[in-house]
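Sequence, please.
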């Protein structure tokens, strides 16, 4: 069935809450483990239906943020999702406290109950109003960024449509594009500050109501950090500063030479070759067709997956008026179908969607028959291993997209992967500072961002770019507003993905087998357990980043 044919109906909140309440009572009074398990199965059926309806509405809202019907449905979801969560949490608490828990753990696995324990720490009925406010604020940010209409090149462009100009071969064009974007951020600075001020305060109130020291602890629990803690993340960030920042600095010096600029500015950072960045050949439709060919050739499993995606129109990837910014992959449980959303703009980012987001989608597809929604996917850093590793496994087929520019594309991708690590860890460090110091003013937050730049990205110079020279660059990072503390997951995953890349340079088939072993576990293991199954070093292991740097240096020396 095609996505356009998927039926949407507004969830009857009171009916679902009543059903969850009845199941909660049943599981508390279950006379046998089998009866308790039957309650789990019924809860799963309801939860998958609710999740599917909410996801359909959210997808259609992001496809066209101007659609009044789905705008209203998104507002309804923002208001009512916490109420549904409350009822579901009541059931999970009863399940967690069941006297039949040992038998249930044997049936469903220990991890289910470990994750329930973390989830229970993130909710009390008293915070429903605060959660509703948090949802409304993140939607306001999405709408503000999606609604950007930036005068440029005789047109009115969205932020996504501005992308190609930001990597133009002409430096003045790049500068003008960044300045236009930065001007939008500065002009809307008061609104962006207001939204974020309110988010920090509401999230701090949530933490206080839950008895936590700060929102940091809440975010770790929300993200189901079930096998590592804040200290592990701090140690990983320190490895990045020690091992990755120096190689990135050398890459930036080399980049400066290659593009012929005496000193790198913000608007030079994503421009890698004086003849222009590697650019995919063909229209958006042709790039999609090349992606289908690639996955058909990669393996029988990826072939089955990509045919399913195309036959059911599970993509919306072309940039157009009214679409939300960014890209994502999500899952429609009842249809056992992933969905990919993006904004193609004629850059290498278009190929990234077919490698990164399709990596997520492939993992979802492979896990689609897991009995529990909890096990359809692992925690987010493991999910990002699925996507970021797939980017590198697609190197074998990049000529389908880039033709004679394939080597340039590989060089750009590997360089980008290394450059990203300091940025991603900086985003994480920034969020720790913000939520551990919730009284910071907007100006103080911006100053903290600029201070961290000197540690993680000493090569960054945003002078002359309005907004961004003031330390507002972080306001373009939607994750900081919408998915707090998620960004470190990309960094942990990138480290693992680079390990798989290094393996694939020696034995592609063996590396892909190990990747599949990681991916096919779905969400049945913790991140560090998955690393063991996939035969890669956990990023938290001392020396993990040194291993990555060594392999990358060798390849770059031979190919740059």
């Amino acid at each position: 069935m095609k996505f356009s044919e998927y039926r949407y109906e507004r969830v009857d909140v009171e009916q679902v809450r009543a059903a969850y309440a009845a199941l909660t009572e049943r599981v508390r009074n279950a006379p046998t483990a089998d009866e308790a398990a039957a309650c789990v199965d019924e809860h799963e059926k309801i939860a998958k239906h609710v999740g599917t309806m909410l996801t359909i509405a959210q997808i259609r809202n992001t496809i066209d943020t101007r659609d009044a019907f789905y705008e209203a449905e998104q507002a309804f979801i923002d208001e009512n999702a916490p109420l549904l969560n409350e009822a579901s949490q009541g059931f999970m608490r009863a399940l967690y406290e069941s006297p039949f828990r040992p038998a249930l753990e044997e049936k469903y696995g220990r991890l289910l109950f470990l994750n329930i324990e973390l989830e229970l720490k993130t909710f009390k009925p008293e915070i429903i109003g605060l959660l509703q406010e948090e949802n409304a604020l993140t939607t306001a940010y999405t709408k503000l960024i999606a609604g950007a209409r930036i005068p440029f090149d005789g047109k009115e462009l969205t932020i996504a449509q501005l992308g190609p100009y930001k990597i133009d071969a002409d430096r003045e064009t790049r500068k003008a594009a960044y300045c236009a974007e930065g001007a939008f951020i500065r002009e809307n600075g008061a609104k962006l500050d207001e939204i974020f001020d309110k988010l920090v305060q509401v999230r701090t109130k949530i933490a206080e109501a839950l008895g936590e020291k700060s929102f940091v602890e809440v975010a770790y629990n929300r993200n189901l950090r079930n096998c590592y803690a804040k200290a592990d993340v701090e140690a990983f960030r320190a490895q990045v500063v020690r091992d990755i920042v120096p190689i990135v600095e050398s890459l930036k010096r080399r980049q400066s030479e290659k593009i012929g600029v005496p000193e790198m500015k913000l608007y030079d950072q994503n421009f890698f070759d004086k003849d222009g960045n590697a650019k995919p050949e063909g229209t958006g439709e042709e790039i999609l067709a090349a992606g289908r060919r690639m996955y058909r050739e990669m393996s029988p499993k990826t072939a089955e997956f990509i045919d399913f995606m195309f036959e059911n129109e599970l993509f919306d990837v072309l940039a157009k008026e009214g679409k939300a910014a960014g890209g994502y992959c999500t899952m429609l449980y009842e249809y056992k179908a992933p969905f990919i959303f993006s904004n193609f703009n004629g850059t290498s980012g278009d190929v990234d969607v077919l490698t990164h987001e399709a990596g997520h989608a492939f993992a979802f597809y492979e896990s689609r028959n897991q009995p529990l929604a909890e096990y359809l996917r692992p925690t987010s850093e493991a999910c990002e291993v699925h996507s970021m590793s797939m980017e590198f496994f697609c190197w074998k087929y990049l000529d389908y997209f880039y033709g004679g520019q394939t080597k340039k594309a590989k060089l750009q991708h590997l360089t980008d992967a290394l450059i990203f690590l300091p940025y991603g860890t900086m985003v994480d460090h920034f969020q720790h500072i913000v939520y551990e110091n919730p009284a910071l003013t907007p100006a103080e937050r911006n100053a903290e961002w600029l201070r961290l730049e000197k540690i993680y990205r000493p090569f960054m110079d945003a002078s002359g770019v309005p907004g961004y020279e003031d330390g507002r660059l972080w306001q373009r990072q939607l994750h900081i507003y919408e998915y707090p503390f998620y960004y470190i997951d990309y960094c942990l995953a990138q480290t693992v993905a680079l390990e798989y890349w290094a393996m694939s340079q020696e034995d592609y088939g063996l590396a892909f087998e190990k990747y599949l072993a990681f991916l096919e576990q779905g969400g049945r293991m913790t991140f560090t357990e998955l690393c063991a199954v996939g035969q890669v070093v956990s990023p938290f292991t001392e020396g993990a980043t040194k291993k990555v740097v060594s392999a990358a240096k060798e390849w770059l020396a031979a190919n740059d």
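Residues 24 and 91 are 5 Å apart (CA to CA).
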